[in-house]
Inverse folding.
């Protein structure tokens, strides 16, 4: 009989111990099972930036796309023929005028020489 | 076209060829930092009339392009009152160099830009657009350049702001009956 009692006591002790252990473990188990979200440990950066403002990348690009295109699509060659010379002085006119002036001076000189020769003679 | 008599203003001192500082007219932007709309921006109304009160210009504007040899088109010689807008570039009011061309003279006599060399810095230029709006520019400087050494970048290069170039002939007449130089007026957009 004493053997049976010993066994019963051992079983009771085991049950009580299991009950106490279960009671102590219950809050922890509930933490996994109650559906309440817990703060997650994440590798994502914090919402508040740790970099100084100047070190943060700019949100807007500094150079809008497509701005390298020339504003003038096709650049003309050379200058523009925007005159026909009715009011300007042509090089031909300058040459002709100079020639006439030279002939005039020569004529005057010839006349002076003749007059002097006539006065002497 | 009205070639007004105007007042007898002192002759303009035109900057000699090659003496304008590099990029002076263009406020040139380094490559890769260009801004502004593309030339064919349909949102900008084309120019239809040019008025320059100081030299009595009031002239219609038509669009022009390129000749088959790649040179810029100019108004027909039998229409000396016309001004051409180079349509391969920005329209007046857009960012970039808007280019207008007019004759100094034809065989018939003085043309629309006969008095262009008399402009001085500060003079006002108004351009009326097809939608009824007007954009105004102020003359910054004038330059005279040999056609053989035409300052292409200065005239047609990208700019940071809306600018205007008026082009006509100048200098002496060459053997081919054409002037050897071009006179270029550089102007900046006035705040609207």
């Amino acid at each position: 009989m004493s053997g049976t009692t010993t066994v019963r006591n051992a079983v009771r002790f085991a049950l009580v111990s299991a009950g106490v252990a279960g009671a102590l473990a219950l809050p922890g188990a509930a933490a996994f099972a109650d559906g309440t979200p817990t703060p997650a440990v994440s590798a994502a950066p914090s919402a508040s930036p740790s970099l100084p403002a100047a070190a943060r990348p700019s949100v807007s690009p500094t150079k809008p796309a497509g701005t390298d295109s020339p504003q003038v699509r096709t650049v003309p060659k050379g200058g523009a023929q925007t005159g026909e010379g009715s009011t300007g002085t042509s090089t031909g006119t300058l040459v002709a005028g100079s020639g006439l002036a030279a002939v005039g001076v020569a004529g005057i000189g010839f006349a002076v020489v003749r007059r002097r020769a006539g006065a002497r003679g | 076209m009205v070639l007004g008599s105007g007042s007898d203003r002192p002759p303009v001192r035109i900057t000699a060829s090659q003496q304008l500082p590099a990029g002076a007219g263009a406020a040139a932007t380094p490559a890769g930092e260009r801004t502004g709309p593309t030339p064919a921006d349909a949102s900008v109304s084309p120019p239809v009339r040019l008025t320059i009160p100081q030299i009595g210009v009031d002239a219609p504007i038509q669009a022009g392009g390129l000749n088959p040899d790649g040179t810029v088109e100019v108004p027909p010689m039998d229409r000396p009152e016309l001004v051409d807008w180079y349509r391969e570039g920005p329209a007046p009011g857009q960012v970039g160099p808007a280019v207008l061309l007019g004759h100094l003279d034809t065989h018939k006599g003085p043309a629309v830009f006969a008095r262009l060399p008399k402009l001085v810095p500060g003079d006002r230029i108004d351009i009326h657009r097809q939608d009824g709006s007007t954009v105004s520019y102020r003359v910054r400087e004038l330059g005279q350049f040999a056609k053989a050494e035409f300052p292409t970048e200065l005239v047609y290069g990208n700019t940071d702001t809306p600018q205007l170039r008026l082009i006509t002939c100048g200098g002496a007449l060459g053997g081919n009956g054409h002037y050897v130089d071009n006179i270029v007026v550089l102007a900046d957009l006035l705040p609207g």
